[in-house]
Design a protein that fits this description.
Blueprint lengths: L5 H8 L24 H15 L4 E8 L2 E12 L4 E2 L7 E2 L4 H14 L29 H5 L13 E2 L8 H7 L16 H15 L3 H13 L12 H4 L6 E4 L3 E4 L4 E2 L9 E2 L1 H13 L3 H6 L18 E5 L2 E10 L2 E8 L4 E7 L8 H16 L17 H4 L1 E5 L17 E5 L4 E5 L9 E8 L2 E4 L6 E5 L3 E4 L7 E3 L6 H31 L7 H28 L2 H10 L2 H30 L4 H23 L13
Antiparallel strand pairs: 1-2, 1-13, 2-3, 4-9, 5-8, 6-7, 10-11, 11-12, 12-13, 14-15, 14-21, 15-16, 16-17, 17-18, 18-19, 19-20, 20-21
């Protein structure tokens, strides 16, 4: 039992309301801070993040007891003008925190009896009809708001660099609708389209545009005068917008683009200030409305023992604390928000930079954890229980892929780099790679606590559960489950095949013309014209493979730049798919020439074998390109 609540400790630590701070305080490393005051902790931590991870600016707001006890700005909102971050005026793009407002708007209509969350969304939609892909199992608002509607993930080309380029939401949810790839209500798989569709549902039922509904029913009543979903923003808000950045070179920044888009109910285009988000958190904590109660209630659990999903929120547990969490990531901006209703506390953190290797997303979570740990330490529930023997331990090992990885779009490539590996660790434990949100902890160790449930070693650790159907559930990310892969689906295998086949094709691109040149210089008999055409085809295929690999490497080498390139649909992405398409088109020719070479006895036996190896490499690479949707045109996934 707690003897002192977080709210009481915050009130003791923050004796006055802090309204702004624009200078970075000189501070010791944040991990060494044991602050007598809340602002000391936050000042030192944020200063460390901005310097170490090369982030231009940040803002932090903490609310408790129905009031704002801290609201501060750090660093600069614009690296060119050196405009300091002002928590009251500087607008930040919220990214997926916009989903909280979408969930609130939808919950208001549910509370008013205007929408049945368990009814077919087609009963209310005017702009489109969701296909009856799974007869008898229609998509519902409840599923849209809990990421269980079953739509595929496809963000390629969905965002825009400027607000004036954004198409209407009602148009985009029709023309940009992803495929339905799983039965609704079965699997939590983070779904941006689902929230865009929920926003359109709000618009259709209310008879108002989505930005107007949010302004009238959420922003204005809470006094959030510096927040908007309108694109372009009103002039006073647009004038104070922060610019988003990613590190460039050894000390500079590149301004990020792609924060606008039609799917504003899911993230792009939504803007708020730290002070306004304090007002929103206070409203969530103190206004006992039906809509707020609906949001802060678990509506889906992938496993009954694990944190679940509210509307917009993810259930959050740390030590003996429980709360509601949401993060938001969009090119150049990263935000995190936590509510702990039992202690009447809310924390909002936002950065206007991606940080080195995308670290800003973790920095916000780390700061929230530090605030909670510093203000309410030594929770008894944080102790790790003793390990037990799990007779099914071996069955949990293997490779898992996030359910949100696309099955039908170019974003399927994400599956090559985001898999989770699970291995045994002793007689009662597991070791995982790829599951941690902390970039400094690539591996985690877990102790079995019974019946497929595992607790991370150390205090305040996460929890893993292995549910029916080979599904892994992590308490750190309740909105996305992980599906077990068979060995032919292994990303490690696929990367190996891609690397090997690319190497063979590149060697072929060099070997065949060099061999022909050497033969000519030595005066040997010229091969038949068809045989020369075969060699030329193999060389062209190898050169295309080399160009494709170089283009793909240019896309994925910088995760921050890729976060901009994918939603913008950059020319480099188009180059990748064009080269992939060319490679797929060339492959049948290489295979046909290989067969012909044996039938007509071209070259020596060694030459025919080497050409056949080249053909096999082309087929192997083509199969990988098709599987990961890296070829477009006639080889793309058919339209829905």
């Amino acid at each position: 039992m707690r003897t002192t609540s977080i709210r009481t400790l915050i009130a003791m630590a923050a004796t006055i309301t802090i309204t702004s701070a624009t200078l970075l305080p000189a501070a010791a490393p944040a991990h060494a801070v044991a602050p007598p005051r809340l602002d000391s902790l936050v000042d030192a931590a944020v200063a460390d993040y901005l310097e170490k991870d090369r982030i231009p600016g940040a803002a932090v707001t903490v609310v408790a007891g129905g009031r704002t006890v801290l609201s501060k700005g750090y660093g600069v909102a614009d690296v060119r003008t050196r405009t300091p971050v002002d928590p009251d005026r500087t607008g930040f793009f919220l990214g997926s925190l916009a989903k909280l407002f979408t969930a609130q708007a939808a919950s208001q209509l549910v509370a008013a009896g205007d929408i049945d969350p368990m009814a077919d969304v087609n009963d209310h939609l005017r702009a489109l009809t969701v296909p009856d892909t799974h007869p008898g199992r229609p998509v519902t608002l409840d599923q849209l708001l809990t990421h269980t509607a079953g739509f595929d993930s496809d963000l390629v080309g969905r965002n825009r660099a400027g607000a004036n380029e954004v198409e209407p939401l009602a148009e985009s949810v029709v023309t940009r609708r992803p495929h339905r790839v799983r039965a609704p209500g079965t699997t939590a798989s983070y779904d941006n389209y689902g929230y865009a569709l929920a926003g359109q549902l709000v618009a259709d039922v209310s008879g108002r545009s989505f930005p107007d509904y949010v302004a009238e029913h959420i922003l204005v009543p809470l006094g959030m005068t510096r927040s908007t979903f309108a694109q372009p923003q009103p002039a006073p808000i647009a004038a104070d917008l922060a610019r988003g950045y990613r590190p460039s070179g050894t000390s500079g920044w590149t301004q990020a683009e792609g924060q606008y888009g039609a799917w504003s109910p899911a993230g792009p285009g939504a803007v708020s200030t730290a002070a306004d988000m304090g007002r929103w958190m206070t409203g969530q904590l103190t206004d006992d409305t039906a809509a707020n109660r609906i949001m802060q209630q678990v509506h889906h659990r992938q496993d009954p023992r694990m944190p679940g999903l509210g509307y917009g929120f993810e259930e959050w547990r740390r030590g003996g604390h429980t709360g509601w969490f949401k993060d938001g990531d969009i090119s150049g901006f990263h935000s995190n928000l936590l509510l702990i209703p039992g202690d009447d506390v809310g924390v909002f953190v936002v950065f206007n930079g991606d940080g080195t290797d995308g670290r800003a997303s973790w920095d916000g979570k780390d700061l929230i954890n530090r605030i909670v740990d510093a203000l309410a330490p030594d929770e008894p529930a944080s102790r790790v229980p003793g390990a037990v023997t799990d007779p099914s331990l071996d069955s949990y090992t293997g490779t898992y892929r996030p359910a949100r990885v696309s099955r039908t779009s170019l974003m399927a490539v994400e599956g090559l780099f985001t898999s989770v590996t699970v291995r045994k660790d002793g007689e009662n434990g597991l070791r995982t790679t790829g599951l941690s949100l902390d970039p400094d902890r690539t591996e985690q160790t877990w102790l079995a606590v019974g019946d497929g449930l595992f607790r991370e070693n150390g205090e305040n650790g996460s929890t893993l559960a292995f549910a029916d159907g080979g599904v892994l559930v992590s308490s750190a990310v309740p909105s996305t489950t992980y599906e077990k892969l068979t060995w032919p689906q292994s990303p490690a295998l696929h990367l190996g095949l891609l690397g090997t086949s690319t190497g063979i094709l590149v060697l072929a691109a060099l070997a065949f013309p060099i061999t022909a040149l050497v033969r000519r210089q030595r005066g040997r008999t010229v091969h038949p014209r068809a045989a020369r055409a075969a060699s030329a085809t193999a060389s062209a295929t190898g050169l295309t493979a080399a160009a494709f690999t170089a283009a793909l490497a240019a896309v994925v080498r910088d995760s921050n730049a890729m976060m901009e390139a994918v939603p913008l649909g950059s020319p480099l992405l188009s180059t990748v798919t064009m080269l992939g398409t060319a490679l797929v088109a060339l492959t049948p020719g290489v295979v046909a020439w290989a067969i012909t070479a044996w039938l007509r006895s071209w070259w020596s036996a060694t030459g025919r074998i080497l050409f056949t190896v080249t053909a096999v490499a082309a087929v192997t690479m083509t199969s990988m390109l098709l599987q990961y949707h890296l070829a477009g045109g006639p080889f793309a996934w058919p339209a829905q």
